[in-house]
Design a protein that fits this description.
The chain is mostly helical. 40% of the residues lie in helices and 0% in strands. It has a domain at 2-24 and 39-72. It has helices at 2-22, 44-72. Helix 1 runs antiparallel to helix 2 (44-72). The radius of gyration is 34 Å and the shape is elongated. The two termini are 47 Å apart. Keywords: Cell membrane, Membrane, Protein transport, Translocation, Transmembrane, Transmembrane helix, Transport. This is Protein-export membrane protein SecG. Involved in protein export. Participates in an early event of protein translocation. Pfam families: SecG.
Amino acid sequence: MTTALLVLHLFVTIALIGTVLIQRSEGGGLGIGNSQGMGAFMSGRGTANLLTRSTSILAALFMVLSLTLAVINRGAVTGGGHDILATPAQTTSTQTAPAPSATSPATVPAAASTATTTPAPDATQH
């Protein structure tokens, strides 16, 4: 049902954008020219009324669909009710420091070691 509402919402949004872009700032819209052969439906005044009415209807549909989608999806988040910014980020790294062996540089006396080595930083310190 959510997918159907999202698709309908997309179509309403595109139609609303198109309807708003078609309108002229004076309210003329598609009423280019004064052809009286089609009657008052596509005259300047008739087109303005048609575009104004369709913009109002599409805007109302857009708002209703937006609120409906928000109400439907308000509990869709797993573990809802908590603030994601309040908890620290969890690391996905599960590496642990290797256990020290008998030949590690930390246990070799300084006089026996000819090369200077620096121990690896401890993974538990920040």
